[in-house]
Amino acid sequence: MNIRFTTFSFLLSFFLGFHISFAQDSNLEAAKYHLKINQKKFQLSDNDLAEMQLSSAYISPSTGWYHAYFAQNFQSIEVYNGIFSVALNNGHLIHTGNNFIVNVEEQLNTVSKKPQITALSAL
What we know:
The chain has helices at 2-37, 46-51, 104-107, 119-122, and strands spanning 53-59, 66-74, 77-89, 92-98. The protein is an alpha+beta fold.
């Protein structure tokens, strides 16, 4: 009897874990899809979509909504406070919060741009 209960508990845990994992994956893909189709509305560049990284995600126990937080990256470096949050309910976009820096590549002094000051004056 104890073996049956243990086997049943194991199988139940396995299938519930698989279901939750699958739900997380499908919700993540739905979140990315909503960002892609609303790219212009949210002022996201192709680079923003390509380089953003999932920071955290969870399903709210009280509402059942899926919450995902994406970190903005530029040239594989995380942009400070560049967070885009998405809330979904049954795959439908409920809420977004966008703190990505618009046109980040134009606002940074990168190697491809001419430096503002010379090396000598920097000393």
